[in-house]
Hints:
Chain B: Its EC number is 7.1.1.-. Chain B: It catalyses: a quinone + NADH + 5 H(+)(in) = a quinol + NAD(+) + 4 H(+)(out). Chain B: GO terms for molecular function: NADH dehydrogenase (ubiquinone) activity; quinone binding. Chain B: Keywords: Cell membrane, Membrane, NAD, Quinone, Transmembrane, Transmembrane helix. The structure holds 2 protein chains of 2 kinds. Chain A contains 12 helices and no strands. Chain A has helices spanning 2-25, 27-31, 41-51, 62-80, 96-117, 121-152, 157-162, 169-172, 174-187, 211-236, 247-268, 274-303. In chain A, helix 1 crosses helix 10 (211-236) and helix 6 (121-152) packs antiparallel against helix 9 (174-187). Chain A is globular and about 60 Å long. Helices cover 69% and strands 0% of the residues of chain B. Chain B is built from 6 helices and no strands. Chains A and B meet through helix 4, helix 5, helix 6 and helix 12 of A and helix 2 and helix 3 of B.
Amino acid sequence: MSSVLAFAAVLLALAYGAAALRAVLSPEGAGAARPWREAARPLREVARLLTQRRRRTPLPDTTLMRAGIVTLPVVAALAGVVVPLGGEPVADLGVGVVWFNAMEVCGWAALWLTGWGANSVYPLVGGYRFLAQGIAYELPHMFALMAPALGAGSLRVGEIVAAQERVWFAVTMPVAFAVYLVSALAMAFWGPLGQPLGADVAGGVPAELSGPDRLVFLAGRYLLLTVAAAMAVPLFLGGGAGPLLPAWAWSPVKTAAVLALLVWARGRLPVVRVDRFLAFGWLALIPLALLQLLGVSVMVVAGG
Amino acid sequence: MAEAVAFWALAVAAVAGGVAVFVVDSMARATFALLASFLCVGLALLLIDLAYLGVLVVLMMVMEMMIMAVFMIMYMMNPAGFMPMTMVHNHRGALAISGAVFALLVAGIFLTPWPARRGVPAADPTRDLGMSIMGPKMLVMMVVGLAILATIVSAVVLAADRGRYDRYGDRPRGR
């Protein structure tokens, strides 16, 4: 029970931190007289959305749309249960890496359902774009997840952390780490890979969402981004290992660093069109990830 | 006891999802009813301690049904999907055929002389599964894996042909 509470508290705090950092770094935030005051803007946005009146489109499929909206934060939280975010993970499953992958893929359904349900063209285009993006990022993502599991000889997140006692997997398998970071951006449709929510389609998937619906969707996106960043820590950055601070403190600190990098990338990198990302993903990321897996396999055979 | 309750709940939900596919009047809803049915089957695998296979079924079914959704909607008579539609044509014939197939499968379940269990469950089914796939079945799996990957790559290459307005940079011939 205490691990659930710690997990929820750390996850929410980090997700809010990401939203606050984005508010500070966003063009409106950077242009404000006191940019750091903008850190409270997500709170004001929450209050605004909670009191906003719902806008309706003609003939929406409300059931499917609500199912999609609610699925997004739920799968983010479920994916996070195997991540040791606040010390112990909520559940250190024997197939933890596969569990994370399966829950994160449910985000595909969430986005497409939300896009479909509104009966409006821009959300629909956004939903289909995310499916195409999913095809582009999922295979490199799976190979990137496989590398640490192969290096540790286990799918259990706890054992992957234990295998990094001497040297972090980010050092021994840097390509897999880089591919993972790209796929983290893609799975949270964030920054350069945020075309499903692109400005060219009036905001894409959540374009017609208003009030609490929009709040749950956007909060779910920040939760997904946070969980994606948090998973990089046990997989590649040695989990809770570190000097001075105890293990329960190092995990959130490292997660915050990865998260800050991802949030910062949004303002620094241009949005990539989904079809070009597909070409990049399949022609560059998959071969690179496979070569990395070959390298790790040789390392494992030679080392064991 | 709890396992039996969970099994029956999942079984009933799986069948209900399957029925819903033919009852709902939108292709998107039919897709997700089918997905819900598959997910119940995946969760049922967790009840017999096959964690890897159960989670894998969830993973693959979600991905597969999302790609299926694109095609199911694309090939509909009314692709918008908001006008009422039905998955059933030739009502009587369809009912007779599906009823007969269902009866045949159920009869098969009850008439098969199921073998009694020998030995004990493996300590780590995931590891045993991997050893089985990568041990005696290695050659088959490697060939099948390569064939599937080649199929996927060629399908994407055929589908993702670039259009005439699609170019990199400012030069007219930039590809």
